[in-house]
Amino acid sequence: MFLRNASRPAASLEPATTPPKVTAIALENTARGEAASMREDGALLGATLAEGERATVPVTLAAGECATFIAQGGIGLVEVDLFLTAEGRSEDIFAQDLETGHIAVIGGRDACFSPRGAGALSATLHVQVRRGAGVVLARGYRRARAETPATSAASARPTSSSRAAPRPAATAPAATAPAATSPGSTPSATAPPPVAPKAASAP
């Protein structure tokens, strides 16, 4: 549906100065789970869309940035889609929402979207209504890109100062010396047990 309608004119996602309160609160709650520990990127955006319509906003991601995008459908919306495409080329899709429902997310939770390569990325964010009609709110969230697993593993290796000292080699137990005796004293000896006399044999 998105590619089929991509050639049609799109509305603009504009700053939502008076957004529906319930929808705005719902977006904040969604962000707590999908964009935790990330900062809000710019103003809250919104558009009123009919079924099949879409709204767009240009997006620029710097090298090393990681982004999450959320679209929250309000009352009357059943299915909302979210797409991130190359600027001016809607057929070149970088990422898209894969879930169903009135909430659409790109780069949620621990899978935030990050540009490939070392340069910045110029893109377009599309919010499309697949089913229903009403107000859609959208917002981006950003943070610095996390370390790669290889970097994290390297930093976790112990340094020379933090490595545990080698265990000392085992030594044989020292022999116990006999107890010293004073001159002229006689070492104590254990007396042998008494022997019972043999019974005399009869002549």
Give a description of the structure.
With 203 residues, the chain is mainly beta. It has a domain at 2-143: Jelly Rolls (Sandwich). It contains 3 helices and 10 strands, in the order αββαββββββββα. It has a 5-stranded mixed β-sheet with strand order 1-4-9-6-7, with no helix packed on it. A hairpin with a 2-residue loop joins strand 6 (77-86) and strand 7 (89-96). Residues 147-189 have a biased composition (Low complexity). Residues 146-203 are annotated as: Disordered.
Characteristics of this structure?
single chain; Jelly Rolls; 38% strand; 203 residues; five-stranded antiparallel β-sheet; mainly beta
How is the topology of this model organized?
Layout: H1 2-5, E1 11-12, E2 14-15, H2 21-34, E3 39-49, E4 54-61, E5 65-73, E6 77-86, E7 89-96, E8 103-106, E9 121-132, E10 134-144, H3 149-156
Contiguous runs where pLDDT drops below 50 for at least 5 residues: 147-168, 175-190
Largest sheet, strands/sense/barrel: 5 strands, mixed
Distance between the termini: 131 Å
CATH class of the domain at 2-143: Mainly Beta
Q: How many strands in all?
A: 10
- Rounded to an integer in angstroms, the radius of gyration calculated over CA atoms is 40 Å
Q: Walk across the major sheet and give the strand order.
A: 1-4-9-6-7
Structural class of the helix and strand makeup?
A: mainly beta
